[in-house]
Each structure stands twice: as structure tokens, then as C-alpha cells.
Amino acid sequence: MKRSTGVIGVVVVLGVAYMGATWYVGKQAQVTVERVVAQANERVIKMLGADMGADNLRIEINDYQRGWFASDVSYTLFMKDEDGTPLELKLHDKLQHGPLPASAVAAGDFMPMLAHSQAQLRPTPATQKWFDSQNGKSPLNIETRVGFGGTGRSVWTFSPAELVEDGEKISFSGGVVEMNFTNDFNDNTAAGQVASFSVTNEQTGENLLIKNIQANSKTTMSNQSDVSTQSNATVQSLAIDSPAGRAVVLEELSMAVDSQQKGKLLDGTLRYDFGRIAIGEIDLGSVSVGASARQLDVDALTDLATTYDKIVAREGISADEELVLTDAEEAVMREKLVAMLASSPSISIDPLVWKNAHGESKTGLQVDLASPDNSQEQRTDVLLAEILKRVKLDLSISKPMLIQALGQVQNDPQQAQQMQVLGAMIYDQYVARLSGAGLIVAEGDTASTAILYENDKVDLNGQAMSVPEFLQRAMSAVM
Q1: Residue 392's closest CA among 410, 413, 372, 367?
Q2: Do the beta carbons of residue 140 and residue 111 sit within 8 Å?
Q3: Residue 327 CB contacts under 8 Å (≥ 6 apart), including other chains
Q4: Contact status, residue 49 vs residue 299, Cβ threshold 8 Å
Q5: What distance in Å separates the CA atoms of residue 365 and residue 452, rounded to the nearest whole number?
């Protein structure tokens, strides 16, 4: 009797201790959730600016009902579509408290954790048709294991869906995104995949089909102001088909983004690769293009863009209208531009390469900028001379590649041959004229040029000259 009483006492003590631990962990889970949400909003504001971030993208905790073993949490993601129309996405989260959440234990996970989250999308006007396609079930389910010490793992599962909106049928295979968090949720890796996505206009028969989308990203933060991000995405094929025209097919697409932000300065590179581009029977070959920016003041650039958008909104200018600035508006824009140039940013295309079966052509451009000594200078040529610190252009054109591309424009073999002959004549004519002016160098079937502007001087294919002399040569060649 005494032994059984002792066992019962131990069980009671352990039960009370676990209940106390669960209550404490539940309280810490709430603190962590609120902090992570605030942190996410701060990063959006830092990236987009105070006005853009608060207005265009933010997340709020609408309700947090904390119980002893679990909590019910409601979130709303506020955003805007491409037309500026406000959209709301709502999530409901059933948050099981650690250290051994019942839902995680039931799933076979006995590792201690802060919380086990099982969230679902809730219907809003923006997502109602998506819900309807699932017969009222949530099309998005999010399972997150929140560990101790700022670690976690989240899996987002998107259900397959078919729906019709504004005369377009959308078919989605479903997909999965997996994310892992470390370093107090500041560092993360993510990987996602979607088998297919298509949009068909039921009236015109036009169709967009994307197959095998895969994406990966990695973000690390050394402190609150230094962030490094590497992302890449690949698509097996993208096809745009229409009964009235030839299909456009892009194969083996890839995109890569690499950025490092230290304080307010950003270094970044962006690259797109298209393994094959085809229009009907025309094979245009492959295209690769890269772009980069160095020493870019993100805050100043955001301020410049925001100021411009406010002026456009105030004037009620549409996209196809020319904006005419008042003297006061021009002064403000000039001030914002000078502030952005203070960091001496550099932008470049490095390079653009077009290949087909007969050769390749490529171009590269680098522009180093600087803040003008006299920002009130009214003459455009003087102001540009101070802003453009260094400009380097490299261009190479392959005659066989160009002729092959022009010949493919025509389906008829005879017309294709005529187009190739015409292309060869035009190429030879312009190469002769530009070579005579010293603007290009012709070697075999390749025409190239290398132009460097620096310190108010121009180096043209290895020959130094003044800016007026270069402009005179250029004008003589095109007249």
C-alpha cells in the first residue's frame, strides 16, 4: 500500500511538473511568435522602405488565445496585387506547446521542442475560389516544428487545384516548400518544387504551361544589418501556345540571385539563362544575361523611387503619359538622386550572350557612377560628365550567327535564303562603314568594339581620343 502510494505521488509530482513546464513553454512560445512576426515586418520595411513596406506587405497577429497545452493563433497577411488592389490572406494556427507537444508525439517525434504548429489557410475574398476548388478544405497546410534556441523546420504543402477565374482555367499540380531556420531564426535555407502550372483562356484557346519548377535559397545574417542571400530557380520548360499563332517555347530556364548587404549598401548579381528559345519551327538557340550592382545605397534608392511614385500619383499620370516635373519637383528628385550617387554605385550587364548553331554574339556594359561636384548644374552634358565616372562597353557580333537567325524568320526555304543574303549584305555594309570610322574592328566573320570612357577621355579599341572626337566619329558613321 505504501509502495503504491509512493508511485502515485511520483506520478502526481511529475504531472504537475510537466503541466508547469508546458505552461511556461507556452508563454515562451507566444513571446517567440510575436517577436518573429515583428522581426519579419521590420525586414520588409528595411527592404522596401517605411511607406512601401507598411502599405504593401505586412503580417499581423489578429488573435492569440493561449491555453495550457495549446494556443489558437490567427494571422493576416496584408499585401497588394500588381494593380495596387489590397489583398488579405488569413491563417489559423493550432499551436501545441512543448516540451513534448502532443501532436508531434502522435506523429512519432519525441524530440523536445518549443512548439508544434499546424496552420491552415482560411478563406478570404482573395482566396475563396481557391477554397471552392478544394470543396471547402484548406489548399495550404503548414507544419512547423519550433525548436529551442531559435531553430525550426517548416513544411508548406500546397494541394493540387483547378479553378476558373475571369474566363481562364488555372491548373496547379500542387507543391511543397521546406524551410529550416537557425541562428535565432535569422538564418534559413529553403527548397521548393512544383510539377506543373498552366493557364488556359477558354475563349481564345491561348495556353501557358510551365513544367518542373524547382527553387532553392539560403540566407545568413551576421548581425542585424549584414545579410547574405543566395537563391536559384530552374524551370524545365515554359510554353505559350495559341491556335492563331506559333508556339513560343523556352527550355532549361534558370535564374540565380546572389546579394550581400552591409548596412545600407548592397552588392548583388542576377543571372538568367535560357537553354533553348523556339518560336514554332524556329530555333533561336540559347540566351544568357547577367546583371550586377555594387555599392548601391538601398535606402537612398528606395527614397528616390518612393518620391517619384508620389509625384506620379499626385499628378495622376498614367503609364503611357510623359511626366513633366515642376521646378520644385525637379529639385527634390535631383536631391534624392545625388543622395543615391553619394555611395559611388556601379551597375553592369556582364554579359549578354546569344548562341545558335553557327556562332555567338555578346555584349557587356559597366557603368560606374559618382555624385556630381555641383548638383545644381543645369547643363545636362556637364552634369552627365560628372555623374558618369567610368563607362566600359564591349560588343562582339558573329556574322554566321546573325545570318542564321535572320534566315529562320521565313518558313519558305527560298525566302529564308533571300533573307540570309540580305542580312549578309547589311552586315557587310555597316561593318565597312563603322570600320572606316574606327568604331569597330573586323576579324574574319566577327565584328567587335571596346569602348572605355574615363576621366573625360575615350579609349576606342585601344586608341585614345577626346569625347568630342569620339562623338564626331560616331556621327560621321551614322549620317
Answers
A1: 367
A2: no
A3: none
A4: yes
A5: 10
The domain ranges of the chain are: 18-159, 264-479
Q: Quote the CA–CA distance of 392 and 303 in Å, as a whole number.
A: 28
461 grid coordinates:
579599341
Q: Please choose, from the candidates 135, 76, 66, the residue with its C-alpha nearest in 3D space to the C-alpha of residue 96.
A: 66
C-alpha cell at 43: 525586414
Total Cβ atoms within 10 A of residue 401: 20
Closest CA to 22 of 132, 102, 131: 102
Whole-angstrom Cα distance, residue 400 to residue 347? 31
Strand (E) positions, 299-387? 346-356, 359-369
Judge contact between 124 and 137, C-beta under 8 A: no
Q: Roughly what angle, to the nearest 10 degrees, separates helices 327-341 and 298-315? A: 160
pLDDT tens, residue by residue, 34-90? 988 888 888 777 666 555 555 678 899 999 998 888 899 999 999 887 777 888 999
* Model pLDDT for residues 166-196, shown as the tens digit of each residue: 888 999 999 999 999 998 888 999 999 999 9
Beta strands in 204-324 (DSSP E): 207-221, 226-242, 245-262, 265-279, 282-297
Predicted model pTM:
0.84
